[in-house]
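The data are passed on as follows:
___
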Amino acid sequence: MIQKIEVNQNYQITQTEIKSIINNFDSINQYIAKGTRNSIKKTTLESGKIATIKSFKIPNIINKFVYRFFRKSKAQRSYEYAENLINSGFKTPYPIAFVENKSVLSFLDSYYFCELVEADLTYRELVEIPTWENREEILKQFTKFTFDLHEAGIEFLDHSPGNTLIKQVGENQYEFYLVDLNRMNFHDSMNFEQRMKNFSRLSPYKEMVEIMAKEYAKLYQKPEQETIDKMW
């Protein structure tokens, strides 16, 4: 087996520690998310910090070949996109490392390490709990956050309810962290159609869409009703 380990040089961790965690990954029983293909676990590092590890399982027979020779792995893309976001001034759990396991002719599995972010909620709570405290203000600030992403040419293709962590950092003030980063596009600029389509997976409720659309219309200087209709 061929193993590639890339570690963030700005982080207090060694390849030896990363390799030890991967070798013992199956025995880590602290799950954040347990899926049929991909799982996320957490563990305490030697530094005392807590890391999350997302495991990407062995891909199908075609992608075994594609990821081996032609395309970056999901773990590598997650790591690099996290660096891009941070360098562009946006928040995501701090990238620590990624690991890829390969054979001579086939891609096997991969892992992405990042710091744990203790969030107060995700966007999903705003969808599922209409009475969530300060919900409208959070939606407005989330819209500004998304607008800033669009202005930077960043299209987060998995912009869905579970993939934005939200932390309250002051009275009526919130921070937003993107997670599940392996599907992103980076543009020189984004047009109105692209921007509105990027909201399509967030909420099935028109009242939420109206709050976001009205806020986006102000930021983008578009007619309010046109923005509501397009976003909806």
The first helix runs from residue 15 to 23.
